[in-house]
């Protein structure tokens, strides 16, 4: 994806933030080239709005495809205002438990390796809808990872994780203590604070992102840390190097390819990625997430529509477990299967998992279905 079919050594070099802003606009337009209908996945967030705003500036009115989820009412308010401002040809689809169940087997029967990302369901759902009208879709994927759009990005930057600062490549005493202590209500918050205080960015990141909480997971943390050492990754590199490639792009590729449309990611064009260092100091300027992209977007639309929070694309998976018969059925099957193989504790109940660790519960479902699919292949 990063290379866009070109040599790793062949990319356009620029020398200033102004040139970089122009480069983004140029590359978005280049990704429109196709002999089939093209659309845009539009969420109302910074990345997809920037793509839509660039197209609007150039008088290009593509159809957009969006998901509406009931509990994200604040997003919906801004979504409407931005859509009206850019005169988008919007197709908005509601996504609830019934919609999850309608695509559940289509998704899970194709899963050949586990994922803890439950947003694969709305992504597949909206891809299926888009496939009725277009054959190519542009997505804002990559903006958060290249330009630092997560709250954890600010904390990692404060730890000196971007470069030059100390990086915890080895398993620390605090890591061991985390896995030795039994689970309790404030455990994660306490250890997040400890990792911040002690400037352990990799441990801080893993505590956020890893679904594994059992004692045996310490060995896997050590393996990740060793890989970070080998590749000289800092804390702010990890969303780009691990989460983007191992989760987000895989999910988008899965969702689009299985409904026979091509997903394109302009913000991951080789020229944009390779020149991103030009604006490194501006990415979190003033403590604002994705500050450079937001500043760029504010040249196209009103700043009040730019500088706001956004809740993301994930599901309230606890609520969906409560409403989806299929999801709960698979959790029961997963626990039975994994208990027989001593992968999960015999005492671990489905109800307790859903109540306390719903994302981990979904990870177990994905693991079970992946194993089942590979066994049946």
Task: Write up what this structure looks like.
This protein is mainly α. A five-stranded parallel sheet has the order 3-2-1-4-5, with helices on both faces. Helix 3 links the parallel strand 2 and strand 3. The N terminus is likely disordered.
Write a compact overview of the structure shown.
By secondary structure, the protein is mainly alpha-helical. It has 18 helices and 5 strands.
N- to C-terminal distance: 28 Å
What is the mean pLDDT?
Answer: 89
How do the SSEs run, as a string of H and E?
HEHEHEHHEHHHHHHHEHHHHHH
Structural classification: mainly alpha
**Rg calc:** 21 Å
The biggest beta sheet, please?
A: 5 strands, parallel
Enumerate the strands of the largest sheet in spatial order, edge to edge or round the barrel: 3-2-1-4-5
Poorly predicted segments: 1-9
Q: Number of helical runs?
A: 18
Give me the count of strands.
Answer: 5
Approximate strand percentage: 5-15%
Question: Which overall shape is indicated by the principal axes computed on the Cα atoms?
Answer: globular
Task: Estimate percent helicity.
Answer: 40-55%
């Amino acid at each position: 994806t990063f290379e866009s079919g070109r040599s790793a050594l062949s990319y356009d070099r620029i020398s200033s933030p102004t040139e970089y802003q122009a480069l983004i606009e140029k590359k978005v337009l280049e990704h429109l080239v196709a002999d089939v209908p093209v659309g845009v996945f539009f969420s109302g967030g910074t990345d997809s709005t920037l793509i839509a705003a660039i197209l609007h500036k150039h008088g290009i009115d593509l159809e957009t495809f969006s998901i509406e989820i009931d509990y994200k009412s604040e997003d919906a308010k801004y979504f409407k205002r931005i859509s009206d401002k850019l005169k988008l040809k919007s197709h908005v689809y509601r996504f609830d438990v019934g919609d999850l169940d309608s695509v559940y087997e289509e998704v899970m029967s194709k899963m050949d390796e586990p994922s803890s990302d439950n947003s694969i369901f709305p992504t597949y759902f909206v891809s299926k809808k888009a496939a009725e009208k277009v054959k190519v879709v542009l997505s804002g994927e990559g903006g958060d990872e290249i330009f630092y759009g997560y709250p954890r990005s600010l904390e990692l930057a404060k730890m000196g994780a971007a470069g030059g600062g100390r990086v915890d490549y080895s398993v620390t005493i605090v890591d061991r203590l985390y896995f030795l202590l039994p689970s309790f209500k404030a455990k994660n918050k306490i250890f997040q604070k400890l990792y911040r205080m002690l400037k352990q960015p990799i441990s801080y990141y893993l505590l956020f992102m890893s679904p594994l909480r059992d004692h045996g997971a310490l060995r896997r943390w050590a393996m990740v840390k060793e890989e970070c050492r080998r590749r000289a990754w800092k804390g702010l590199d990890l969303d780009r190097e691990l989460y983007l490639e191992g989760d987000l792009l895989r999910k988008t590729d899965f969702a689009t390819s299985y409904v026979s449309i091509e997903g394109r990611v302009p913000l991951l064009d080789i020229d944009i990625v390779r020149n991103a260092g030009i604006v490194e100091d501006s990415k979190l300027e003033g403590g604002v997430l994705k500050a450079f992209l937001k500043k760029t977007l504010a040249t196209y639309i009103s700043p009040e529509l730019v500088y706001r929070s956004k809740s993301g694309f994930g599901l309230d998976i606890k609520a969906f477990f409560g409403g989806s018969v299929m999801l709960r059925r698979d959790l029961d099957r997963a626990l039975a299967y994994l208990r027989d193989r001593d992968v999960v504790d015999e005492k671990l109940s489905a109800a307790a998992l859903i109540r306390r660790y719903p994302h981990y519960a979904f990870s177990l479902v994905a693991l079970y279905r992946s194993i089942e699919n590979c066994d049946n292949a």
